[in-house]
Amino acid sequence: MMNIEKLKEEQLAAARKVVTTDEHGELKTFGGCDCAYFDKVVIAAVVVCDDKLKVVEKQTASVETDFPYLPGLLYYREGEAIKAAFAKLKNKPDVLLVDGNGVLHPLRCGLASHIGVELDQPTIGVAKTRLLGEEDEAGNIKVGNEIIGAEFKAKEHAKPIYVSVGHKVSLETAMEVVQKTTKHPHKLPEPLHLAHRLADKARQET
Predict the structure, then answer these.
(1) C-alpha 7: how far from chain center
(2) Which residues pair with 30 in a beta bridge?
């Protein structure tokens, strides 16, 4: 039987370890991770690019899970597969972009933050849906007076994505990385776009 309250306590404990300031060296390599599903198998793909957005390395891993999709608890569905794929990398990225929220999360510990804490890895949350908060005129997402994320649009009429601190990266740096790694015509940063394609390809080949 799944104990949701216990999992939320774990998330709160991880949230207390999240660092929301820049604690990294020069950012020269950028990773992206995304997952695809086949029956009860989660297929995680991680792609690492250099600062010219050329692929340095890519890895996949598959993990069976019974955990259902529950908003706010994505780590418990995808986390093990992502960690398994990341462990295979010979070239760990300076920062990892995660398809999911970071501190833009009711418990301030979405998939990107939880992965960052577990791996002791600088991470950035990049999500297609906003779990909470209100947007101000500057595009910041706030809960009360606290800024917990920002909206990013690759071009004027594109659907927005929601960027938040994962771990060991400031929001300002997170936005700079997302801008730097997004290239036309894609609305997602290139490492994430490539990871999405790789995960999908691995699913089709399963």
Answers:
(1) 19
(2) 49, 95
